[in-house]
């Protein structure tokens, strides 16, 4: 738990979120400013600043999060989806608690 971290507060139910999944390690909820008709965030319960701060000890957790993406996307009715992990300020990261974006729905996503 990091005192000023918005996602730690969501993990601890200190601030509300539209949660769609929770287990002992991970939660998933809807992004507050969706960039697609469905936009989910997969967040570990432990605080890790970013992907750049992960090491061998996080391998199982990262694998679990990645494998949750297709399951939650499918359960949300997505036929296809995009995953994204912004890393570092220059990588577009705004919330410094690692998370996987999962988004899709509506039109086919543009090529990146
Ligand atoms: P980043 O830019 O760090 O990869 O993504 C952070 C994401 O968190 C953004 O898409 C933003 O809309 C979302 N976000 C920021 N604050 C909140 C919040 O309080 N609740 C929810 N549900 N999403 C948030
Ligand atoms: Zn945190």
From TrEMBL:
GO molecular function: catalytic activity
SUPFAM superfamilies per UniProt: HIT-like
InterPro entries associated with the record: Histidine_triad_CS, Histidine_triad_HIT, HIT-like, HIT-like_sf
Active site per UniProt: 99
Annotated ranges, domain HIT: 6-112
Top-level taxonomic group: Bacteria
Residue ranges of the motif Histidine triad motif: 97-101
PANTHER family xref list: HISTIDINE TRIAD HIT PROTEIN
The protein's name in its UniProt record: Histidine triad (HIT) family protein
